Each structure stands twice: as C-alpha cells, then as structure tokens.
Amino acid sequence: MSKIVILSPDVSQKIAAGEVIERPFSAVKELVENSLDAGASDIKTELHSGGKRLIRVTDDGQGMNREDALLCFERHSTSKISRVNDLDRIATLGFRGEALPSISAVSRIILKTSDGKGEKRTLIEKEGEKVIQVSDIAFPKGTSVEVRDLFFNLPARKKFLRSERAELSWITRYMTHVSLAYPGVRFSLVHGKRHVFDYPSVKTLKERIFQVYGKSLLEHLMEVDHEEEGRRLYGFASVPPSGRRDRTHQLFFVNRRLVKDRNLQAGLNQAYRGFLEKDQFSEAFLFLSCPYEDVDINVHPAKAEIRFTDPHAFFQIILHSIEKAMLKKQGIKEVYPASESAKGRLRIEEGMRERSFLSPERKQEAWTDVLPPPEKGERVFPRILGQYQDTYIIASSEDGILIIDQHNAHERVLFEKYQDIDKKKKWPQKLALFPVLFELSPSQVLSLEDNQAVLEDAGFRVEAMSGRSISLKEFPDLFKEEEAKEIFLSLLEDIKGDKIKDKKVKLLATLACKTAVKAGQPLSFEKMSYLVEELFKTSNSSLCPHGRPVMVKIERKEIERGLKRE
C-alpha cells in the first residue's frame, strides 16, 4: 500500500484555514480588511468571550448580490485580482480569497449582505463545510459576518487560545491601529455589553491620534512629511528627547497596510540615534506611500510582513524624513538633498544646541534618595578608578579591570531593595499635590482593569473619570510627581502577562529602571564606591533585572598580552 496519500478536501481545508486564522484576532483582521476593501465608512465589531464565542463585523460597504455571496465561500474566490501580473500591483488589503473560506471551515458562520440592487437580500448560514441555509432577508446595503464558536471542530487548536482578556487585548490593539490608517472611517468595538471604543470619522490623522491616545501624546509629536523619488512618508514622530521604554507606539503603514519591517525600524532608530537616552524609543505613526510594484506583500500568510525591491531606499527615506522634520521643528529652513544626510544631521545637532532643544552635555541629576548616603570609611573592594563617559564605572581587581554600567548596576541594587519592600507590603506613598489627569488608550484601559490590584499593592492609586480619563491620586514615594505619569503608563505596557508573579517581577524591574541613575550622569567618587559595594551584595551582580549584563571584565592576562608583558 502506498505511503503517500492525497488529503481529503475536509482535512486540507482545515490545515489551510490554520495558516490564515490562528486566533480570534486573525478572524477580526480578515473581516475588517474585507470591509475596508468594500469601501465601508462605518465598521462595527462585536465580540463575546474575547471573540472565542462570537465575532460579528458589520459594515455599510458595497455588499454582494446572491451569486457573489455564494461564491465568496469558495477557495481562492476573489474580486481583487485576476491575472498573475496583478500580484505586482496589489492596491487592496485582501486579495487571496482565503478569508471567508478559512473562517467558515473552522466555525459556525452567518453571512448577511446586500448590494442595494434588486429585491433580494441574502443570508447564508454554514457550519464548517456544511451549508445550513440560504434565504432571503431584509437587510440594508452592506455586509454582516457573524462567526460563532471558533475552532469548534478543531479542539486541539481551541485549547491553545489565550484567556478572554488576552484575546480581547490583541483585537483592541489591532482595531485602534487600523483606525489610524483610515481616519475617515468610523470604527467601534463592543465586548459583551461594554463599549470598548467608538471613533467617529474625522478628516485628519492628527484628529484620529487625539481620539485614540489623547492630547498628552500629541503634545510630544512633530509632523513628518517628505517625498523623494516618487515615494512619500508622512505622519507624526516624537520630538526629542521625548521617548518611551518600549516600541508599542512605533507603527509603520505601507500604502495604508500595517506592517512589520526591519528596514523601516532601522531607519527610525538611526534617525534618533544620539537624541534619546539609552533604552528610550521614539513614538512614530508613519505612513509610506509608494508605487505598488516597489513592495511585495505576498510573502506572509497573514500579510504582516513585506519585502521591498530596494530596502536601502526605504531605509533612507525614513532617515531623511525624520531629519527634515527635526530641522523644521527647530526653524531651520534649509533643506538638504538626500546625498548630504550627514550634513543635515550636523545642522540638526547645531540647531538643537543653540535652542537648548537637546543639550549635548547632560546636567548632573540628584542622586536618588532611595539609597542612603555613603558613610565615610575604608573603600570597599574592588577599588574604584574613575568614570568613563559619565556612564561606566572603572574598577580594579587583583585579576583585571571591571567596566561597570552604572545604570544597570543601580537597577540590580534597587530591584532587590524593592523586592524586600514588596514582601513587607510597606511601599512609601506620596499624595499628589494636584491629581495627575490623563487619558488612556483602549488597550491601556484593559491593562489597568487587569492589573489595578497589582498597581495598588505597589503604591499607585487611581480613580476613573469620564470616558477613558483617569486621575492618579497617589504613587510610590520613589520619584518626582512629574515622573509619575510616564512610569505608570510604562507599567501598564510592561505587566500584561497572565501570571501574577510575572507581573510583579516586571513591575519591580520597571520601577528600578525608572529610579536608577541614568547613563551620562556624572557621579562623585563616594557615590561610585557605594554603588559598587551595594552591587556586590546582591544575589546576582552580573545581570540587571531585565537580563542585560552589568559589567565586563578585562583579564590581567589580556592586558599583559596586549602590552607584550607576558
């Protein structure tokens, strides 16, 4: 008997569905993209149990007639392309004709649609591969797709779904991100009886960013708009030295498609190099418009990754666009050609110095009050030799030289100190002189609801205001009041894990990072000595709580070998 067999259509269909539909988020993404391709101006998404029990996406787009409605469940049925050459000029979000067939293969689905013509409005109900009914209904122009019991016929896949809250968080993040690319479309998201958000249509990207993230974020952004060689980059990015500890607010859209691409990321990092503190990342909402043949979007089943025909050109346009925006922000009207990027960067740095926009020398900050002042007495081993670039402590031992990252070292010391405080439940708290008011994004609201108890244990007390606004009333007495908001928002992003233990570790690590001495900060000899002494008392002096190395060692033998003293 032959070992090689042809899979049955039922099995192959489910395997193919798994490549496209991995979780509720995948189904929502495919359905919302179909609505956008259909020219919808109003898209409503309704969920139950994080989308595991129900997903319903309703739009007011073009809709379908009865014939097209029946065809759309067939594999590779599409209105987007018809020839091989069309793959080089894809202008729509969806094009493969796999979304509805893949979703229907692993769920119970009801499609309602109307193209506004004729008298027939169509309802099609399916359960897996089985058609339950096709009937006439009353329905306005547009389409509604209702997906129930995702993976009901694939229990092995279903058991690997995350918690209801985790699945909802994925969908919320996607919906807020895609809404940025289509400010003229109304987006709403309902989970059970709760309205997560409702963004009415607006005219500009700036207005949509305000809807999603609030006024406080906009105040730290500069407008970006640059065109070269038929490609245009526009959007908003951070005004240095404003930044974040994570990349959650770095979004790239290519022809209005949300993508991940290393070249674009590298261009952004290069543009901000030297203008942000260590471990700080710029915020960026950047949209790249380019000829469709310049980019291949058919390289990933979920269409999340792309490939450029000329990656270096797209790296350069990100770099030049940010540099041009910085020049404009500083009132420097001279625009430099692309080939003179280095000269343009020099003018940016000079303009920043003249306007105190970003001082090249960091001012000495006060030593954190978390550690007691060093006592007079004999210096501890290893022996401190000095400080290099106001960032690294140089110390000697019997068998070599230690180069210690002062920020990472202080992080480790504070992390273990905070662990002791947390065990005793005795966080020192500070009452805000005036309540700190700010607005959360929908995903941050979900994180706050999940983690409020953990945050309160650490000394943060907040009160809900109207809409997504909150008031920060109390915070740990470890940092200044003006730092409280940034640290609180960083924590909301960092502690999204499912396990309480993991959340506590991330929370303490973030607090340690925010209160530790910074790179570029001059330290007195006594403070360096005390910090190194405390470091070697910790349980792990080699790594900071985020897993980065604290020090490197140059062995004495290596020094002697280099100086020919062996």
Structure summarized in a few sentences:
The chain is of the alpha+beta class and about 575 residues long. It has 3 domains: about 10-200, Heat Shock Protein 90 (2-Layer Sandwich); about 220-355, Ribosomal Protein S5, domain 2 (2-Layer Sandwich); about 385-535, Ribosomal Protein S8, Chain: A, domain 1. It contains 17 helices and 22 strands.
CATH topology label of the largest domain: Heat Shock Protein 90
- Helix count? 17
Q: Average pLDDT value?
A: 81
Largest sheet: 8 strands, mixed
Euclidean distance between termini CA atoms? 72 Å
Indicate the overall shape: elongated
What characteristics describe this protein?
3 domains, alpha+beta, 566 residues, 8-stranded mixed β-sheet, 17 helices, Ribosomal Protein S5, domain 2, 36% helix, Ribosomal Protein S8, Chain: A, domain 1, 5-stranded mixed β-sheet, Heat Shock Protein 90, single chain
Structure description:
With 566 residues, the protein is α+β, with helices and mostly antiparallel strands. It has three domains: 9-202, Histidine kinase-like ATPase, C-terminal domain (Heat Shock Protein 90); 220-354, Ribosomal Protein S5, domain 2, CATH 3.30.230.10; 383-535, MutL, C-terminal domain, regulatory subdomain (Ribosomal Protein S8, Chain: A, domain 1). Helix content is 36%, strand content 23%. It has helices spanning 9-20, 24-37, 66-71, 99-105, 155-158, 164-181, 205-213, 215-218, 262-272, 311-329, 341-354, 406-424, 442-457, 481-494, 500-515, 525-535, 556-562; strands spanning 42-48, 54-59, 108-114, 122-127, 130-136, 142-148, 186-191, 194-199, 221-228, 231-238, 250-254, 257-259, 284-289, 295-296, 307-308, 383-388, 392-397, 400-405, 429-439, 461-464, 469-476, 551-555. The strands form five sheets. Strands 5-4-3-6-2-1-7-8 form an eight-stranded mixed sheet. It has a five-stranded mixed sheet with strand order 9-10-13-11-12. It has a four-stranded antiparallel sheet with strand order 16-17-18-22. Strand 17 and strand 18 (400-405) form a beta hairpin. Helix 2 packs parallel to helix 6 (164-181) and helix 6 (164-181) runs antiparallel to helix 7 (205-213). The relative contact order is 0.08. Residues 333-340 and 352-374 have low confidence and may be disordered.
